[in-house]
Fold this sequence. Notes:
By secondary structure, the chain is an alpha/beta fold.
Amino acid sequence: MDILLLGPPGAGKGTQGAIVGKALGLPKFATGDLLRDAVKRGTPLGLEARAEMEAGHLVGDDIILGVVREELGKPEASKGVIFDGVVRTIPQAEGLERILAEKQRKMDAVLFFDVSDEEILARLERRRSIEGRADDDPAAVAIRLRAYREQTAPVLSWYESREGVRRIPAVGTIEEIAARVRRALGK
Ligand code: ADP
């Protein structure tokens, strides 16, 4: 089963993706984690992505789709994947659809984690004080939220007109939200 998680930065996609991935026995694939790891290790991918990430801009579609293709070629991805933050532009949605179709697969469920802007700002500020991520500073957060509104929010309508999108109110305890995710997936 292939499941896409959509929602603004700080919506809890990573936390809930890990829970649902474990429950369904599927690997979670987060482009943000993979890129951060590449930056840390100084790989060619990391060198290419670093400046954009630290500024809060989106990394180019071709780079992302290259990474997606590589990840989906791995044996552990053969039964399905939880895609966390992997699709942030319409060309990425189209590209992922093509890559899945080559494997006779399609996105089986799209979950949208719905959180207000005020809550997002408060969560990212908290995360900054805990994790110290360079892109959680207020200037980069403002840029990330703008990228989300301008480039990623339209992805929601793209999926709405196809697979359909299941909306998850993403404020509450981790357990409450996990239960909503299970219900939305009929599990
Ligand atoms: P968040 O969703 O909280 O912004 P992530 O850890 O998911 O954080 O991503 C961090 C950064 O990695 C993004 O701001 C962006 O620069 C880059 N990134 C991750 N996934 C993508 C993607 N699919 N397309 C473009 N850039 C991406």
